[in-house]
Amino acid sequence: MPELDDRLRLLRRQARGWAAELRPYALDLDRDPDVVLRLLDAPAVTCAAHLQIPAAFNPTPLVLAGERFHLTAARERVVFCEEIARGDLGMMLALPGASMSGVLVAAIGDRAQQEWFYGRLLERPTWTFFALTEPGGGTDAAGLRTRATESADGSGWRLTGRKRYISNALRASVGVVFHRTGDGPLGLGAALVDTSSAGFTAVAVPTLGVRGAQLGALTLDAVPITDGQLLGRHLSPMRRGSWGWQRTFNLLRPTVAAMAVGLAQAACDYVREHRRALRPAERDALARTQGEIEGVRRLTRLAAVAVDSDSGSGHLASAAKLRATRLAADVSRWALRCFGPGARLDQPLLDKFARDAAALEFMEGTGNVQRLAVAAALDRGAFAGYPPGVDGPAVDR
């Protein structure tokens, strides 16, 4: 496993402490997503709001023992997000900050767009949204139906379409909307959108899991945007479309994998803490489960190292996301079985873990999307030279 250096251990220790502070609110947040609004003075929430902002725009990063952290590198993100999700995945997703939108703005936004977006986040705790998924089409970029059409008077553009399953849709004040300006891959684009704009509406989508994320459905009814809100306007059509998006997803997928590892570890910890009198077979199962978690944690860290070295290298990120989401679902269900047939009623926190785990499958591309990416990488020999097991069980399962 890629070892954490002293700097990353500092970050892990701090994140672990914040996770412990947030865990007591997990079930309350599950019942009422607005609980997070009452935690804005909590250090974990206030600090998270200023993380994931590049150094050039962030005068107040997290400082621990003289080390500065911005959480823009994949290795920092996986360490931090694993620990917060180990406390509670719903709370991890409910925190304000740059989140997924910030990654895209950093990748393809110009200087003025970055200053505007990150400046908004520094003023006060701000939630952001990342609107890609559409009803009936999921996250398939080629199937996007949301359109940006130029105004008749040439004053700007109008966004029209629908999005669904958008995290923090009802809390957010700013975010990005993926759209088309034309047919084909060169017609793909993304725009910065203020949720107070005319024609923008968001309604809640009821869910069984990750209720803290307050998923929503967006309707865009000729929402006005200016040329300055079109991300990547200084780039070629390909680089502001699929090229930039792919690098964004390459960074985000190890992060989602780390969240899944954190949730799996939380479920394993729960069994260890609440089933002290384990039978020999159960002790063996617990040891095997912990071993599986360690293996996927290793893969996730390898994926983060690969993305930090080359933002275009996403095959390990896809493998990690695929394996970790399966792990979280398997471990949380196994943990429930350890407490018998009434576990979902008798162990509400563990029931929440299992419900939340199911949602990870749909973040940053479903399992089939990741399998296609891994298959393409195997075909071109991208996994050659990695340690034994990385291109075996980690991919196959």
TrEMBL record:
Coiled coil: none annotated. The keyword Lipoprotein does not apply. CDD domains: ACAD (cd00567). Residues 246-378 form the Acyl-CoA dehydrogenase/oxidase C-terminal domain. The keyword Oxidoreductase applies. Residues 130-223 form the Acyl-CoA oxidase/dehydrogenase middle domain. It comes from the Bacteria. Keywords: FAD, Flavoprotein, Oxidoreductase. Gene3D superfamilies: Acyl-CoA dehydrogenase/oxidase, N-terminal domain (1.10.540.10), Butyryl-CoA Dehydrogenase, subunit A, domain 2 (2.40.110.10), Butyryl-CoA Dehydrogenase, subunit A, domain 3 (1.20.140.10). PROSITE patterns: ACYL_COA_DH_1. Its cofactor is FAD. Belongs to the acyl-CoA dehydrogenase family. This is Acyl-CoA/acyl-ACP dehydrogenase. The lineage of its organism: Bacteria, Bacillati, Actinomycetota, Actinomycetes, Micromonosporales.
